[in-house]
Amino acid sequence: MKITQYAQGHACWVELASHDWQAAKAFYQALFGWDSVDMPIPEGHFSLFNLAGDDLGAMYQIPESESQIPSHWRVYFAVDDMDASIAAIQDAGGQVHMGPHIVADAGVMAQVSDPQGARFALWQAKNHIGARRQGELNTLCWVELACKEPHAEEAFYCTIFPWTNSPSDMPDIEYSEWQVDGQSIGGMMTIMPEWGDISPHWLLYFAVADCDAFAEKAQALGAQVCIPPSDIPDVGRFSVIADAQGATFAVIKLNQM
Q1: Which one, of 145, 141, 118, lies nearest residue 203 by Cα?
Q2: What is the end-to-end Cα distance of the chain in Å, rounded?
Q3: How would you class 104 by CB atoms within 10 Å of its CB: exposed for 0-12, middle for 13-18, buried for 19 or more?
Q4: pLDDT by residue (tens digit) across 138-185?
Q5: What is the pTM of this model?
Q6: Are the C-beta atoms of 253 and 215 separated by less than 8 Å?
Q7: pLDDT in tens, 246-255
Q8: Which of the listed residues 25, 137, 157, 228 has the most CB atoms within 10 Å of its CB?
Q9: In 3-state terms, what secondary structure has residue 135?
Q10: Which among 247, 7, 218, 256 is positioned nearest to 125, based on CA atoms?
């Protein structure tokens, strides 16, 4: 689905921070068939991912001075007023880690975290709305928050974004859906003790035509399959994957696609 604008609170962009920019770029190009365009920056490396010429997201090389930061994917949510959004986040107990920064004539960004430490980013668009495609094969289709105190997270996110939270009937797990004007845009699940020492985080899902084939292909390209292909009743079949640098994401074959 081609997109021309994002409403407040919608996931609008994704960004990969990697310790091996060239290897990660080659991996995602091979896995999803994305093209990439290298962008000149004063220091380091930065590329835009695109599909058929439409921007989907970006990636950059983590500086050597920040070697303690693991490779990771990050989601950006659209906001209409960056200053007001940051004030709301701070008032609700969140933190600002970077920004806000003006990105040339493209827009304004900031990196923040919720009170439980899950990091995400904000984007106030000027001339670049964010991803031009979502909800189709090989593009972002869902974002999911894993946390330890879902009721507290519900209060936080429904304060800073125009979200509501609706329980979802999922077997063996406490799950709910984030909604904007009745449209589900993401989910939330509780971190279970048996998962081990996992910090609250946002996980990105990319739609694929065949979950099993993608998991097998990712593994052949050097990735680790963290959760093997598994069925979600009435939804689809998904797998969680960590690329060779450790950045984690999910792929899903949706029943309706």
Answers
A1: 145
A2: 12
A3: exposed
A4: 999 999 999 999 999 999 999 999 999 999 877 778 899 999 999 999
A5: 0.96
A6: no
A7: 999 999 999 9
A8: 157
A9: coil
A10: 7
10 confidence band (pLDDT: 50, 70, 90): very high
CA 33 to chain centre: 19
Type of residue at 257: M
DSSP letters spanning 162-194: S-EEEEE--TTS-EEEEEETTEEEEEEEEPPGG
Rg (CA), the chain: 17
Cβ–Cβ under 8 Å, residues 201 and 118 = yes
Q: Which two tokens stand for residue 236?
A: 């689809």
- CA dihedral (56, 143, 102, 92) in degrees, to 10, reads 170
List the structure tokens of 70. Answer: 């693991």
Cis (ω within 30 of 0) for the bond into 100?
A: yes
User: Rounded to an integer, what distance in angstroms lies between the CA atom of residue 151 and that of residue 146?
Assistant: 12
Please name every residue paired with 238 in a beta bridge, in sequence order, or none if there are none. 230, 252
- Between CA 250 and CA 241 the distance in angstroms is 6
Q: CA–CA separation, 182 vs 68, rounded Å?
A: 40
The string of pLDDT tens digits covering residues 75-122 is 999 999 999 999 999 999 999 999 899 999 999 999 999 999 999 999
pLDDT score, position 76: 98
Whether the Cβ atoms of residue 57 and residue 34 lie closer than 8 Å to each other: no
